[in-house]
Amino acid sequence: MASQQHEKNEIERLDREYTLGTWTRQADFNPTQIADTEGPRIVTADGDSILDFSSQYVCTSLGYDAERIADAVNEQIRTVPYVNPGWSTEPRARLSEKLAEITPGSLKKTFYSTSGTEANEVAFKIARSYTGKHKILSRYRSYHGATAASLSASGDPRRVVQGPEIQPEVPGMVKGPDPYAYGSSLDPEQSLEYIDEMLGLEGDTVAGVLVEPLVGSNGVLTPPDDYLPRLKEIAHDHGALLICDEVMTGFGRTGEWFASTLYETEPDIITMAKGLTGSYQPLAATTVTEEVAEHFEEHLLNQGHTFSGHPTACAAGLAAIETYEEENLVDRAKEMGAYLKTELEALADRHPSVGERRGVGLHQGIELTRSEEKRVPFERREDKMSGEPTVLNEVGASALSEGVYFYTSVNTIVVTPPLTIDEDDVDEAIAALDVALEISDNAM
Ligand code: PLP
């Protein structure tokens, strides 16, 4: 079982001493060393084997044993480890062709970067150039990245911190409501009408409407089936492109290659990262339709990165997609997702502090509540950045002490295991949650 208290080893001490940790006060930065991995598990330096039901912020969708990727990366490093993006390499060309094949409809051409954040920034520039407009409309319950424009487009609590951490938002970012029925004053239909009205009130100056088709770190919010197609219609009526941020939901997570397909929608632009290489290499992509790509035949694509289309990362991406295909992991996510859904719903019936189960495929979550009648969160949005432990944190820590790691965020236990899991893994995770949820039940 994963121990929560352990003696700091040399690596943890060095890391603490010389590395600045992400999204944390450094006084709270006390990382545990992961020294090994096996299948869907991470193993600490103390030898604790932890079943990973987070996929590390929804990254390691292929688990930790994808030999094909290791071989492809190794081979590429030994042949062409790097050339600048002005040259052509086989892994980039073949990966771009493959992405055209697996993305919906006429999505065809891809621009590469190294993080989901950058993929979204690139999408903004493309949408602006294509439409000749400048604003980006996104939603309050969203996360799109950490740099100036992507963070400003996010509705995440990380955008609104005040005091010494404050970062001014870039201009031209507009926020609309979410299709979030549970505990919200607007129903999904009203939220669409609101966005329609907003686009008009902005004088049709919005270049792109940016959404996570199925929201991730802001609480695994699932829209009604007709939401995304209707949003696309509304965006197009106002001359804006639909940008789907599939950084979390891409690559089989929902039981389809992309969540846009799940909702029968062809976005004008899709952004992706994480699952693209199963996170064996840092790689992100912005794929656009043939029509949008056509615009750049005559107009400058005024964007580039030294590591755009990095050959080693592209080799990892290609090998990852071949692994999803060969192991039939997209269908598997659908099957295992159905089993997980049944088990999570049974869990919700047993535990009064589970307010709602949401999500599709292996992109699910449970939201906690202090009250069975109405939604009263254990962790409010502002708590996310406060550093103070919440009941949600305690539930996560308890599951970890039972040997299963979950990502907890914005009052929600995010349940996003690698697509390679089996029913026994689900049973193990549910058993850990069963114990952990006693904490929230008792805190009601
Ligand atoms: N978009 C979504 C939906 C995400 O979940 C994330 C990261 O979690 C990002 C964008 C940013 O990606 P990155 O952390 O690779 O910059």
From TrEMBL:
Molecular-function annotations in GO: pyridoxal phosphate binding; transaminase activity
Gene3D superfamilies from the UniProt entry: Aspartate Aminotransferase, domain 1 (3.90.1150.10), Type I PLP-dependent aspartate aminotransferase-like (Major domain) (3.40.640.10)
Pfam families found in the cross-reference section: Aminotran_3
Keyword annotations: Pyridoxal phosphate
Cofactor: pyridoxal 5'-phosphate
Keyword Cell membrane among record annotations: no
Any one cellular-component term (Gene Ontology): cytosol
Superkingdom of this protein's organism: Archaea
Assigned protein family: Belongs to the class-III pyridoxal-phosphate-dependent aminotransferase family.
Protein name (record): Taurine---2-oxoglutarate transaminase
Originating species: Halorubrum vacuolatum
Organism taxonomic ancestry: Archaea, Methanobacteriati, Methanobacteriota, Stenosarchaea group, Halobacteria
